[in-house]
């Protein structure tokens, strides 16, 4: 089973080029709001492979990593 899950993301783009994810749509159709953005940095996904901008987010009280790889968003499957 692939440990990388591609997700649909609703994000805010500001005039400076910053991107802030607001919500994610999981593969089963459930939508989760991003409660808090903790960190943004260039990083590799150790579980799923691939690199991109890693967004460390709080969603429903849990810290998760959301990756943007040139417009394709993914998360690591637990």
From TrEMBL:
Protein name per the record: Uncharacterized protein
Organism, per UniProt? Answer: Pelosinus baikalensis
């Amino acid at each position: 089973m692939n440990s990388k899950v591609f997700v649909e993301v609703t994000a805010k783009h500001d005039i400076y080029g910053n991107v802030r994810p607001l919500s994610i749509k999981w593969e089963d159709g459930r939508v989760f709001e991003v409660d808090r953005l903790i960190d943004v940095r260039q990083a590799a996904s150790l579980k799923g492979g691939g690199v991109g901008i890693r967004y460390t987010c709080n969603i429903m009280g849990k810290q998760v990593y959301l990756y943007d790889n040139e417009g394709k968003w993914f998360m690591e499957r637990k």
